Amino acid sequence: MLKDEPNFAEISKTVRDQVGLLLDEKGLPAREIASEDRLNADLGLTSLDLAVLVAALEMKLQADPFQELVPITSVRTVGDLEAAYVRFFSKAEAGVQDEELAKIRRRTEARRAGPGCLR
Amino acid sequence: MTSGASRTVVVLSGGSRGLGKAIASRCLSEGYIVATYSRSASPFVKNQLELDPSRKNFFWSEVDAIDPAGVKRFASEVYERYGQIGAVVNNAGIGSEGIFPCMRLRDIDLCVDLNLKGPLYLTWVCARFMIQRRGGCIINISSVTGIRGHSGVAVYSATKAGLDGMTRGLARELGPRGIRVNSVAPGYFESGMVDQLDDEAKARIIRRTPLGRLATTDDIAEVVLFMISPSASFITGQTIVVDGGLTC
């Protein structure tokens, strides 16, 4: 667990370490993890793996940005994941970010309202 | 069961009296560590805390099951203290009886909160620990009223059927992480809820039960114990009915 509020480098390292551990646990080959890596398409992680990551990162960083701040459905890449934690620890840009969050939520809701979803 | 760090920690809601007390007692006697919470300490809880001042085997906190922050604090404390959560038993609940159109809305809310939202909160927080450990089991104490229609218990039935839905959904979702999720559905058993029935109603239930009696809390606790144990390691997503054949 990190003692103080982490900076970007610490967040990024923690996120990538945890992704690496998960890949290792799944028996996937070790690789350098980049910000633009897509969790599913590039790294082969499932939505349950993402839940494992979020749970592990909550213990490491003492933060869960997905309860209020960021919709989990908006996370596609390692960079998205890092950004969510950066945002959690950043108070300064809250106003701008709230607008972005509202846009993401609108897009998500529109997708959910589309055909084929369970009711 | 083994001793030391590998002993399974069973997190149990409402382990102070009734069925919860029976489950806690049987788990303790089988060597499990029991961590439980309730709104107040019963004589059983006080006795266990006195017998085990170092909390090696038994841990209890005063928590309101419908307070998600309190439930999360409790589970986190258990995890920090024992290093794992191996099993969750969602036992806490209340009965709710009455002809539905005449029920008070606050009684509907209370029943849904305690019987459905409470288990969802506890499972949510514990699942976050369990998925990292790649193993564990979750047991929801549902009811035969969630399976068969019974007049006068529509709200209670709805919450218990909801638990069974959660059982099946989570069994699929968490199975890939080695977590089993099952329901144990008691019929009528000797408890405070059944005490409210008059003698004639109890006699009618017994007449309709092939095994000719009400269940005891130990009948139910034994099944919970089995479902927690490695003997049930290939059972998930099921509702195990323990009703002496009432619904067969």
Summarize the entry for a quick read.
The complex is a heterodimer of chains A (119) and B (248). Chain A is an all-alpha fold and 119 residues long.
Fill in the keyword field for this structure.
heterodimer, A: 119 residues, mainly alpha, Non-ribosomal Peptide Synthetase Peptidyl Carrier Protein, Chain A, disordered C terminus, B: 248 residues, alpha/beta, Rossmann fold, seven-stranded parallel sheet, 8 helices, 7 strands, 45% helix, globular
Describe this structure in words.
The complex is a heterodimer of chains A (119) and B (248). Chain A is an all-alpha fold and 119 residues long. Chain A has a single domain (8-113), classed as ACP-like (Non-ribosomal Peptide Synthetase Peptidyl Carrier Protein, Chain A), CATH 1.10.1200. Helix content of chain A is 55%, strand content 0%. Chain A has helices spanning 8-25, 47-61, 78-89, 94-113. In chain A, helix 1 (8-25) packs across helix 2 and helix 1 (8-25) packs across helix 3 (78-89). The radius of gyration of chain A is 15 Å and the shape is globular. Chain B has 248 residues and is α/β, with parallel strands linked by helices. Chain B has one domain (4-189, 217-238): NAD(P)-binding Rossmann-like Domain (Rossmann fold), CATH 3.40.50. Chain B is 45% helix and 15% strand. Chain B has helices spanning 18-29, 43-51, 68-82, 105-133, 154-174, 192-195, 199-208, 217-228, and strands spanning 9-13, 33-38, 58-62, 87-90, 136-141, 179-186, 239-242. Chain B has a 7-stranded parallel β-sheet with strand order 3-2-1-4-5-6-7, sandwiched between helices. In chain B, helix 1 packs across helix 8 and helix 3 (68-82) packs parallel to helix 4 (105-133). The longest helix of chain B has 29 residues, at 105-133. The two termini of chain B are 34 Å apart. Chain A binds chain B through residues 46, 48, 51-52, 54-56, 58-59, and chain B through 128-129, 131-132, 173-174, 176-177.
